């Protein structure tokens, strides 16, 4: 059965006790889980917030990105080793949160470009890092789900075809794939075709509107999306990822320059929308 989650990046990129009232309300609304960005250096905060979420009956998932100094496809072995170290640190923090899934474009560094198309060597390097990370994640019972993102944020994996190639090259049971409707809306010719292509290794799913606002308010082909998820019998998370300028530092880092939707509007209407679409298309939400 699909569980419905909400990414708290709509409020803050920092894992702290200030998120507790937000978790309270999300649980009251009927969410099954919440997703956190792993990155803030306050390590004890992850365990505190994970325990708090568990006490509310909320499950957790995690997301993160890598920077240029920790790039899995860098020509330097030392930099690739730093990438693996950062992923392992993230796995530890996700374990503190109680997460069983980690997602994000950690196959390569975020917004770092080589000024050429991806090479076979880069896929080999990324797969090597992900394979070692998969071994570490397995010890914590965590599934890693790297994400294909749009051409303005990375060059290694923009499409499900590329991501499927990388995941299959990695060939590790704790490394699957993530699908994000915002990025797919930019890069894929057909969302149905892309979802079908990635289905054998699909481990996590982000419900995200074309402009990152409230799901259902834009032009993502949602009927096609949910019908295809039902067709492939997808049973994983359906997690809303929408962005605002509530956390200016984070918003600036990802190019969010205006408000798309107010966070609670996004959470309330988004939950209703996912439930309606799941029922309409026979997806077990």
From TrEMBL:
<dbReference type="InterPro" id="IPR013022">
    <property type="entry name" value="Xyl_isomerase-like_TIM-brl"/>
</dbReference>
<dbReference type="InterPro" id="IPR036237">
    <property type="entry name" value="Xyl_isomerase-like_sf"/>
</dbReference>
<feature type="domain" description="Xylose isomerase-like TIM barrel">
    <location>
        <begin position="23"/>
        <end position="276"/>
    </location>
</feature>
<protein>
    <submittedName>
        <fullName>D-psicose/D-tagatose/L-ribulose 3-epimerase</fullName>
    </submittedName>
</protein>
<dbReference type="Pfam" id="PF01261">
    <property type="entry name" value="AP_endonuc_2"/>
</dbReference>
<dbReference type="GO" id="GO:0016853">
    <property type="term" value="F:isomerase activity"/>
</dbReference>
<dbReference type="InterPro" id="IPR050417">
    <property type="entry name" value="Sugar_Epim/Isomerase"/>
</dbReference>
<keyword id="KW-0413">Isomerase</keyword>
